[in-house]
Design goal:
By secondary structure, the chain is α+β, with helices and mostly antiparallel strands. The protein has four helices and four strands; from the N terminus they run βαβαββαα. Helix content is 42%, strand content 20%.
């Protein structure tokens, strides 16, 4: 399974939804909490061009936010990404 990284905030409902979906898929992931470490905000923005959380990466691929993750799953594109290292 590829490395999954999510820039997130503990209080963000979209972050919780994205984590719940990944949990249902049995995916292991790393959460980078942007509120606990404010230096992560500019890092995230630099990598994504976005300033909202969550921002999700599977391997080197930027998936986007919560809605993007759910749309990818609806199209059947999430499972193959989770299986490929």
């Amino acid at each position: 399974m590829p490395d999954i990284v999510m820039y997130a905030s503990e209080s963000c409902p979209y972050c919780r939804r994205a984590r719940a979906l990944l949990d249902r898929k049995g995916a292991a992931y790393t959460v980078l909490d942007v509120n606990r470490d404010p230096r992560l905000w500019p890092e995230m923005s630099g990598r994504t061009g976005r300033d909202t959380v969550p921002q999700i990466f599977i391997g080197d691929q930027h998936i986007g936010g919560c809605d993007d993750l759910f749309a990818l799953d609806q199209r059947g594109g999430l499972e193959p990404l989770l299986k490929n290292p």
